[in-house]
Specification:
Order of helices and strands: EHEEHEHEEE
Number of domains: 1
CATH topology: Aminopeptidase
Strand order of the largest sheet: 2-3-4-6-5
Structural class: alpha+beta
CATH architecture: 3-Layer(aba) Sandwich
Strand content: 15-25%
Distance between the termini: 40 Å
Shape: globular
CATH class: Alpha Beta
Radius of gyration: 19 Å
Length: 146
């Protein structure tokens, strides 16, 4: 009978932990506003991406996404992290691609489709702005924090 040998391996990686996001529906409206404010500040300070979001009931509307240095993948990174958080916290995201900043709407639509946004087919509600694209949270998907 041989005894197994224990081998130690040094690693610089920090262990990954599943996040502890609280479900969006359980947050108080002030907490919801603070979460979005933190996201917007994080995008601006660390990635030079101007991100503006609004709480619309149980949905979060992305009103503006503008990379200070386009073409470097910064907006995609911010949106990927935002979508991962939305899956974990069970938040529905909505937006409307716009040519306001000189962007091509067709190209933007393809960009958002690559992030699992789809045409918004929800029934219109009175006195509520409805965006043209929507992204429902993916059940069972959580983001990982280091």
């Amino acid at each position: 009978m041989t005894t197994p040998k224990l081998r130690l391996v040094a690693s610089n990686e920090t262990p990954q932990q599943v996040c502890n996001c609280r479900p969006w529906g359980l947050l108080h409206h002030v907490s919801r506003d603070l979460v979005l404010a933190d996201f917007m500040e994080w995008a601006q300070l660390f990635h030079q991406v101007q991100l503006k979001m609004l709480v619309r009931g149980d949905h979060v509307a992305i009103c503006e996404l503008l990379a200070r240095r386009p073409g470097q993948g910064r907006a995609r990174l911010v949106m990927s992290v935002l979508c991962a958080w939305a899956d974990c916290a069970r938040v529905t995201l909505e937006l409307t691609p716009s040519d306001h900043w000189g962007s091509d709407v067709e190209r933007l639509t393809k960009f958002y489709e690559s992030l699992e946004f789809e045409p918004n087919l929800e029934q219109e509600q009175r006195f509520r702005v409805q965006e043209s694209m929507i992204r429902y949270p993916v059940r069972g998907r959580v983001h990982v924090r280091r």
